[in-house]
Amino acid sequence: MHPLRSLILAAAGNDAIRRVVATAPVSRDVVRRFVAGEQTADAIAVTRELVASGRSVTLDHLGEDVTDAEQADQNVRAYLELLDALHAEGLAARAEVSVKLSAVGQKLDERLALANASRVCAAAEQCGTTVTLDMEDHTTTDSTLRVLAELRRTWPSTGAVLQSYLRRTFDDCKALAGTRVRLVKGAYAEPESVAFDEHETDLSYVRCTNALLAGDGYPMFATHDPRLVRIVAERARWYDRKPGTYEYQMLFGVRPDEQRRLAREGETVRVYVPYGSQWYGYLMRRLAERPANTTFFARALVSHS
Ligand SMILES: Cc1cc2nc3c(=O)[nH]c(=O)nc-3n(C[C@H](O)[C@H](O)[C@H](O)COP(=O)(O)OP(=O)(O)OC[C@H]3O[C@@H](n4cnc5c(N)ncnc54)[C@H](O)[C@@H]3O)c2cc1C
């Protein structure tokens, strides 16, 4: 792994650094580039703009790794409020929600996470939309896939996320190819025993793309990598997939011109929009992915302090 990436991911878990970054006056401005805001109304405003520009949305209420049931319940209630607002604003057909099981209690008890995720899925269905379960570090993969399988018994459109950096993922792709699956490279610091290096991760992404397109499910290709976007387009043609039978996904604030270009070409493009006050871990993963973002952040911190 790139040394700067390891350093930033280590900082993500460091409380002293967290306090400095979270309270620096400029942080709020910089964070805004990647995060819609702290309130439901901010998430709705950004969703409205993205939908008006021809893009779809998946919303993530930030707040992973909760350590008590009350916090998990608060996160569920935030999703319920969001879903009501999406419905009331007529945005639910174009906006789904992404849920991290660790935000709804997975670290406390898998059954609690299942019960809480079920509350979000039920509300999403009532509002005319659906849920995708984000994937977290590899120690949670089996548990997340178990919860997913349970949720799909009642809500079959619940989306899965698979990470091409994991050695196991090609098999998971084959198993889930008939369903809604988001394919990503993977964002966590993982040991070599379970994960590929960068080059192998890209090759794995292509193998997984083929497996998903060959199935009769709905693949969601989440990457900003121009080479992989080209390969997905070429492979979709090869498998005779029409736009709308698969989609591209990118993060809010990352390659917006490319998002608009794909949408103009008639592709479905879904933007992952995080919001909420717990933005620190999310921001750190974005910085770790792209050292240029770190320079941007550091420069902004210095010039405002
Ligand atoms: C919609 C969505 C949902 C996700 N959900 C999850 C999840 O549930 N679990 C998980 O582990 N990870 C998730 N991720 C993160 C993912 O795993 C990767 O960490 C992240 O997308 C970075 O990998 P990449 O494929 O975009 O390409 P990278 O390997 O980061 O970059 C490859 C190339 O893409 C281009 N590029 C990348 N970033 C930029 C930029 N900011 N500006 C311009 N060019 C750029 C550059 O040419 C770069 O060389 C998600 C990502 C997206 C887009």
Automatic annotation (TrEMBL):
Residues annotated to bind substrate: K100, R285, R286
Domain Proline dehydrogenase: 47-298
Single GO MF descriptor: nucleotide binding
A Gene Ontology biological process term: L-proline catabolic process to L-glutamate
Top-level class of the enzyme under EC nomenclature: oxidoreductase
Keywords: FAD, Flavoprotein, Nucleotide-binding, Oxidoreductase, Proline metabolism
Organism: Kibdelosporangium aridum
Cofactor, how bound (note): Binds 1 FAD per subunit.
Pathway stated in the Swiss-Prot or TrEMBL entry: Amino-acid degradation; L-proline degradation into L-glutamate; L-glutamate from L-proline: step 1/2
InterPro entries: FAD-linked_oxidoreductase-like (IPR029041), PRODH_bac_arc (IPR008219), Proline_DH_dom (IPR002872), Proline_oxidase (IPR015659)
UniProt name for this protein: proline dehydrogenase
